[in-house]
Amino acid sequence: MARAPVAAPHPTHKLRLLLRREFWEHKGGFFWAPIWAGGISLVLYFMAIVVGEVVARKAIADGEIHGDNGFRINQLDIGMLTKHMSADDMRQAAQGIDLSLFLSGTWPFIVLGFVVFFYCLGALYDDRKDRSVLFWKSLPVSDRDTVLSKAISATIVAPVIATAVSLVTMFGFLMLVSVVVAVHGGNPFTLVWGLGSPLKIAAKLIATIPVYALWSLPTVGWLMLCSAWSRSKPFLWAVMIPLFAGIFVFWFDIMDLFNLDTAWFWQHIVGRALTSVFPGLWMTATNGISVNGPEDFDRLLSLQQMYSVFASPQIWVGAIAGIAMLFGAVRLRRWRDDN
């Protein structure tokens, strides 16, 4: 009896398998590193709260401030605080809580920048270094699909995981503060959850994912191009070439050999090639980044302000350059299969 022909796998099935491979091979960076960063930040916040408690009780014992074991300091019952706050005080308190919530979840994003940077740097080099590239090239997977899966892992998978961990960290911090308020007799739903906007902050953090995916393309493309091209020490090539280019432009500018804005070159060429994988730097392309208080922070994180970067030519020119460098990485991977 003749066996039924086996249908060829759908291209999306291949890509899904490649994405799984990238995740499992780099689970430590993509998954565990943000979790460790978020966990360490929560431990540090807990230690800071304990230090604050000890300092406050010592000040009460020394008579520097007057209070009791509850939430009453200098005859001010903080549990009743919201009843005596004006509308402007309530607004400022809400902005302060929102700022604290946002900052509490930034640690996984800081780690994300370093994880993506070094992941892209070794994405195509490590396979050649341990010669596993020969095995992967023996599979029915094109170089285009391989590079595409690595680029998607860097620009979408890693930030999605970091954002999820950041949200867990933020709500963990919120629970920690709520417990402290409850222990002192306050109502956390009125003093913390009611004043702050945790769901709004969470939605804004999720909304940054597409901005990050597009903004990070120049650095992802450059690092993967160096990873596919260099025979050894891709870190030095990836970092030194832009830095020396910036130094030469600075030197030419001093010598008046040609008129090129040195600051522009460092910001738009060197900076975009090396630092675009760090979240939040797209704010440099929006109108105004000065933060003088919680109200400016609220404006800076508004969706309108955040998505105004899509109207900037910097993000689109950088994305086109990043895609072009990824295309170059695909071409290089086809013939450079050893170190």
Distance between the termini: 49 Å
Derived structural class: mainly alpha
Low-confidence blocks of residues: none
User: Strand fraction band?
Assistant: under 5%
Query: H/E element string?
Result: HHEEHHHHHHHHHHHHH
Note the overall shape.
globular
Level of helix content?
over 70%
Evaluate the radius of gyration: 25 Å
- The average pLDDT value, as a whole number, equals 84
User: Count of helices?
Assistant: 15
Quaternary organisation:
single chain
Total strands:
2
Main sheet properties: 2 strands, antiparallel
Q: Strands across the major sheet, in which order?
A: 1-2
Please provide a written account of the structure.
The protein is mostly helical. It contains 15 helices and 2 strands. The chain has helices spanning 11-25, 27-61, 87-104, 107-123, 125-129, 133-138, 143-183, 188-193, 198-215, 217-229, 234-254, 262-275, 294-300, 303-307, 313-335, and strands at 72-73, 76-77. Strands 1-2 form a two-stranded antiparallel sheet. Strand 1 (72-73) and strand 2 form a beta hairpin. Helix 4 runs parallel beside helix 10 and helix 10 (217-229) crosses helix 12. The protein starts with 10 loop residues before the first helix and ends with a helix.
Quick overview:
By secondary structure, the protein is mostly helical.
Topology:
Layout (H helix, E strand, L loop, with lengths): L10 H15 L1 H35 L10 E2 L2 E2 L9 H18 L2 H17 L1 H5 L3 H6 L4 H41 L4 H6 L4 H18 L1 H13 L4 H21 L7 H14 L18 H7 L2 H5 L5 H23 L4
Antiparallel strand pairs: 1-2
